[in-house]
């Protein structure tokens, strides 16, 4: 991928944060850049069982309908991957993680992927919290062969920009911002939004951000310059704004989920969106170099470790540590005996813990339990 192509893709991705209707075109550009033909981008609100974003190219009606029939199989394989993946930055590539005999017997592969000519699939994970799950699924067709390190590397360059766009889209909770009534549109948004120039000089604040500034909630103003109260956050915020003004492609993870509050205080996070990279964003506010989105609902960590997942399950359903351990193992989809072997306990002990878990979650069967746990954010 040439620097010019990368820069244009990043600009398209950031435009989608403000105008989600552009995602299909951007997904087409991404697939073309990595010699693929199909893609699905999704963002799910697990608390309210809502799909916030679902955009696809190259799958067609048949492919999307058929894929829906095999979600249980897809989730089972991804759960196994989450249990062993060293980082959320590591993508799941089917040809690397699944044995050939499994691919030959898989109903998803044989009934959905094969008829579409898809020979490999890569899942790139964008958000994985107790409340949200987002991924980009890339399909590789026969004429291009299996996914290689080259494609994995290309996607790694886009990953932080995709995450920023998804996080901001979720924070906005709007389909588009009306350019001709920008101030009114920003004031209606539930998170704080501050527009600045390249030096950090504040150009506009919406109602939420104005309230934060007056209460000194994480952010502050000094001589008209936006800053954070925590020194490390202030330093990263300044750096992100400078990069946004100079070259948005260089932002990377800088300015992505900056924690504005100190440890022990209620969390408050900021995402920096560059505003100079396209006509769409420039028209919103010609002088602005960066838009800073601030809120407590934006997770700082897009990745949950197994320990964090167990903690979330325990807190959500009032499970003991032993029960949370069993629930986490059951999510892997291998059954009670396999869970007992991995935990080093007797199968009868697993059954006893499951009985307590059923009582606390209100379900009666293991399949229902797995679905509930996945919706709680562990999957």
Word description of this protein:
The chain is of the alpha+beta class and 379 residues long. It folds into 3 domains: 3-172, 2-Layer Sandwich (Beta-Lactamase); 179-295, Beta-Lactamase, CATH 3.30.450; 306-375, Arc Repressor Mutant, subunit A (Orthogonal Bundle), CATH 1.10.10.10. The protein is built from 17 helices and 12 strands. It has helices at residues 3-18, 23-33, 60-69, 71-84, 94-97, 100-105, 107-113, 149-172, 182-187, 207-215, 231-246, 279-284, 306-317, 321-330, 336-343, 347-361, 366-375, and strands at 38-45, 50-57, 92-93, 118-128, 132-141, 192-196, 202-205, 219-222, 225-228, 258-259, 269-274, 290-295. Strands 2-1-5-4-3 form a 5-stranded antiparallel sheet. The longest helix is centred in the middle third of the chain and has 24 residues, at 149-172. Residues 174-180 and 298-303 have low confidence and may be disordered.
At the fold tier of CATH, the topology name of the largest domain is Beta-Lactamase
Task: Tell me which oligomeric state these chains represent.
Answer: single chain
Globular, elongated, flat, extended or rod-shaped: what is the shape?
globular
First-residue to last-residue Cα separation:
32 Å
Beta-strand portion reads 15-25%
Helix/strand/pairing category: alpha+beta
> Radius of gyration over alpha carbons?
22 Å
**Domain module count:** 3
Mind describing the biggest β-sheet? Answer: 5 strands, antiparallel
Mean pLDDT: 82
Taking pLDDT < 50 over at least 5 consecutive residues as the criterion, the unreliable ranges are 174-180, 298-303
- Summarize the amount of helix as a percent range: 40-55%
Instruction: Encode the helix/strand succession as letters.
Output: HHEEHHEHHHEEHHEEHEEHEEHEHHHHH
Strand order in the largest sheet: 2-1-5-4-3
Number of distinct helices: 17
Strands, total number: 12
Looking at the overall shape, the CATH architecture of the largest domain is: 2-Layer Sandwich
* CATH class label of the largest domain: Alpha Beta
């Amino acid at each position: 991928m040439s620097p010019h192509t990368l820069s244009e893709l990043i600009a398209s991705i950031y435009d989608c944060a403000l105008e989600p209707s552009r995602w299909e075109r951007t997904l087409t550009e991404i697939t073309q850049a990595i010699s693929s033909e199909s893609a699905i981008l999704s963002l799910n609100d697990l608390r309210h069982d809502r799909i916030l974003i679902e955009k696809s190219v190259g799958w067609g009606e048949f492919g999307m309908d058929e894929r829906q029939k095999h979600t249980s199989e897809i989730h089972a394989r991804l759960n196994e991957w989450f249990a062993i993946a060293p980082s959320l930055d590591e993508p799941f590539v089917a040809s690397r993680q699944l044995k050939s005999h499994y691919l030959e017997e898989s109903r998803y592969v044989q009934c959905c992927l094969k008829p579409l000519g898809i020979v490999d699939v890569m899942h790139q994970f964008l958000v994985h919290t107790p409340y949200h799950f987002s991924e980009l699924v890339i399909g590789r067709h026969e004429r291009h062969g299996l996914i290689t390190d080259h494609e994995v590397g290309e996607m790694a360059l886009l990953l932080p920009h995709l995450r920023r766009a998804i996080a901001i889209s979720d924070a906005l909770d709007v389909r588009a911002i009306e350019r001709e009534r920008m101030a009114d549109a920003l004031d209606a948004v539930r998170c704080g939004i501050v527009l600045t120039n390249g030096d950090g000089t504040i150009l506009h604040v919406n109602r939420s951000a104005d309230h934060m500034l007056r209460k000194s909630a994480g952010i502050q103003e000094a001589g008209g310059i936006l800053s954070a109260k925590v020194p490390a956050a202030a330093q990263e915020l300044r750096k992100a704004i400078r990069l946004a003004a100079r070259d948005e492609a260089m932002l990377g993870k800088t300015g992505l989920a900056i924690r504005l509050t100190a440890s022990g205080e209620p969390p408050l996070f900021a995402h920096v969106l560059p505003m100079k990279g396209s006509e769409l964003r420039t028209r919103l506010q010609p002088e602005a170099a960066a838009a800073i989105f601030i809120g407590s609902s934006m997770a700082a960590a897009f990745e949950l470790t197994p320990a964090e997942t167990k903690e979330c399950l325990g807190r959500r359903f009032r499970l003991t540590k032993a029960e949370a351990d069993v629930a986490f193992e059951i999510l892997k989809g291998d059954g009670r005996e396999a869970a007992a072997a991995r935990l080093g306990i007797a199968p009868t002990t697993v059954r006893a813990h499951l009985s307590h878990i059923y009582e606390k979650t209100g379900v009666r069967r293991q399949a229902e339990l797995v679905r509930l746990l996945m919706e709680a954010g562990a999957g």
